[in-house]
Write a structure and sequence with these properties.
single chain, alpha/beta, Rossmann fold, 2 domains, globular
Amino acid sequence: MGWTVLCVSKISAAQVTRNMILERAGYKVIAIANPEEAVRIFAASALDAVVFGDSIQPDQRNDLARSFKRLCSSIPIIALSKTSGSQVPPGIVDEQLESLGDPQLLLEALKRVLARDGDASARATPVQKSAGAASSAVADDNAIADRETDPKAPKNSAV
């Protein structure tokens, strides 16, 4: 099963394209334009990472990042900015990227921040849509079903 990414950005062609790129790479994307609603979704959803689009005002992005880190400091945050260089004070986000760059940079940044997660070794790589991935997904579903029916099987929410 792939990772779930919360993308917080105003709806735009760039955001739609970014979401499509992430989905094609195997990520499940939860897109939200309303920063206040993003906090509720962050608190109520099982997320693996957050991406802030460059359309979120810097002060609001910083406040959101602080709120998210207070709620769950282990979920990595990537902030996109319209210009190069540091836009967010150190320690608030895990990665900062210039949004005008190559979309591959976002995918690489997600791999980096998810690999830093202490449990990343237990997680599957985002699923590529192929016949092999389909059989792998069936095997994952069967393993989940086995754990759910076997009371002695270890529980792992990261699956």
